[in-house]
Amino acid sequence: MAPKRKIVDTHTNDVAKAKRTKFTLDNVRLPECTTEGVVLVTGAGDVGQLGLGPDVLEKARPALVNLSSEIVDIYAGGMHTVCLTKDGKVLTFGCNDEGALGRVTDGKEDAEFTAGEVELPGKVIQISAGDSHTAALLDDGRVFAWGTFRDSHGNMGMSLKGNERLPYEILKNHHVVKIASGADHIVFLTNHGEVLTCGCAEQGQLGRTSVRGSSRNARNGIGKGNIVKLVNPAPISVKPSLKLHFDNIWAGSYCSFAKVVDKDDVYVFGLNNYNQIGLSNTEPEYFPKKSPEFSKYNWDHISSGQHHTIALSSDGKVYAIGRKEYGRLGLGKDCQDAQILTEVKVLSDKKIINIACGSSTSFAVTGDGQLHAWGMGTNGQLGMGDEDDYFEPTQVKGKQINDRKVVRASSGGQHTVILCASDNNNKPEQKNGK
Q1: CA count, 13 A, side-chain hemisphere, 277
Q2: Strand pairing partners for 71?
Q3: Residue 46 lies in a domain
Q4: Domain-located, residue 172
Q5: Is 29 part of any domain?
Q6: Separation between Cα atoms, residue 272 and residue 254, nearest integer Å
Q7: Which residues contact 352 (CB under 8 A, 6 or more apart)?
Q8: Between the CA of residue 428 and those of 38, 69, 424, what are the distances in Å?
Q9: What are phi and psi of 108, to 5 degrees?
Q10: How far apart are CA 278 and CA 290, in angstroms?
């Protein structure tokens, strides 16, 4: 007689071996892209970054860019401009020497000085740009980028092939929910609360390489070997024992910020020579470290230039930290470098809804649609009509901006782009009342 078979409770066994459910983000705050409007530009336009045609090389006050599409978001790169249309398409104009426009301009007259569409395989919901690169997040979680990264040795390329002059899927097998660009690096936030980075690591902005490993010529990965590690996106180095997940990211020119889920804790990494990432030690921070300063408040947005950071709290207050030169902090002509986050008092009686930093400039948009600017004005990028430096927030005025409600601003190296809500939906202004 055959022995009885032992009955195994397979259900109980399966439960015991089941993998822990992976954390998933429920909500991610992206730039609001429901207001359709017009694009204004100011500053230097010598390589087409103003989009006003080959005959307009500079503007001291905001000027209207005549576009045929309704625009919902804007981003200023180092020497190029990116616009997102209502239909989720990307328009670019400006310098294309290293592929930052993502489209072919060679042999096409004035193609860099006027807006042209980038061919992408889906609807774009967020854009970002750096000195020589552009990135686009699609509604299905894919990210495409184009252009190049640069470091102290020159051109790094964007992939092992070098510059990517057309959109290239930079991060596969991840569902990305937000992107952020520094001057030469990109930060990615996934739907599982992970943060990945790629690009230049020399100032610590990738948050995953040691000082020795931050250069493409590092001894632990000479030449091409280390380029692979830098240009391929990889997770930041956070201690697994901390079990951290993140729900927001921001990038400065040479630094990065990541906010912990359901907390005000902000981890920072990158250049800190003027305390611009809120750490007391002014050495670069190569691995994520909790910033006591940036963990004090709940932030709507953080924007960081070359040596300073401007942050907008959830209650509409603006704080500044970092280097004082040229008035970029907005704390007055006689202020000192700010080693801790300091409220910009001139704006304290206003409800601020948006902020932006250029290399040495700062901007704030009020709830009623006014734009305030301060910092270096050498190239007219403040839009004040002159080239003076402004040491406190000052309202930007001019023919094209006075009767329009500003939604947001973005500033690059020497130019600024402004999105305004408007009834004319970017159509050229009609003359003689017609």
Answers
A1: 34
A2: 37, 85
A3: no
A4: yes
A5: no
A6: 9
A7: 312, 316, 317, 318, 364, 365, 366, 367
A8: 10, 11, 8
A9: -110, 115
A10: 9
Q: How far apart are the first and last CA of the chain?
A: 102
pTM of the predicted structure, to 2 decimals: 0.92
With 0-12 / 13-18 / 19 or more C-beta atoms within 10 angstroms meaning exposed / middle / buried, residue 411 is buried
Q: Closest Cα to residue 298, out of 331, 341, 255?
A: 341
The tokens 């294309």 sit on which residue? 96
Tokens of 34: 């429901």
Element (H, E) at 225: helix 224-231
HSE-CB for 332 with a 13 A CA cutoff: 8
CATH number, position 163: 2.130.10.30
Q: Phi, psi (5° rounding) for residue 369? A: 90, 15
Among candidate residues 101, 103, 184, 191, the one with its CA nearest the CA of residue 142:
191
- 403, amino acid identity: D
Checking if the pLDDT of 346 tops 50, the result is yes
Dihedral of the CA atoms 147, 58, 416, 49 (nearest 10)? -20
Matching residue, tokens 């470098």: 337
Question: Is residue 19 predicted with pLDDT exceeding 60?
Answer: no
Q: H or E stretch including 14?
A: helix 10-17
The tokens describing 169, both together, are: 């899927």
Q: How many domains does the chain have?
A: 1
Residue 5 belongs to some domain of the structure: no
φ/ψ (deg, to 5) at 85: -85, 165
Per-residue pLDDT tens digits for 202-254: 999 999 999 998 988 765 444 456 889 999 999 999 999 999 999 999 999 99
* Domain coverage including residue 170: 80-392
Scanning the structure block, which residue is given the tokens 């990116």?
82
Helix (H, G, I), strand (E, B) or coil at 122: coil
Tens digits of per-residue pLDDT, 132-170? 999 999 999 999 999 999 999 999 999 999 999 999 999
List the alpha helices (DSSP H) in 74-114.
none
Q: How many CB atoms lie within 10 A of CB 153?
A: 11
- What separation in angstroms does the CA of 9 have from each of 4, 6, 20, 308, 393? 16, 10, 21, 62, 70
Q: CA–CA distance from 418 to each of 62, 74, 76, 327, 364 (Å)? A: 8, 7, 9, 21, 11
Q: What is the C-alpha to C-alpha distance for residues 252 and 237, in angstroms, rounded to an integer?
A: 19
Nearest to 276 by CA among 328, 236, 352, 317: 328
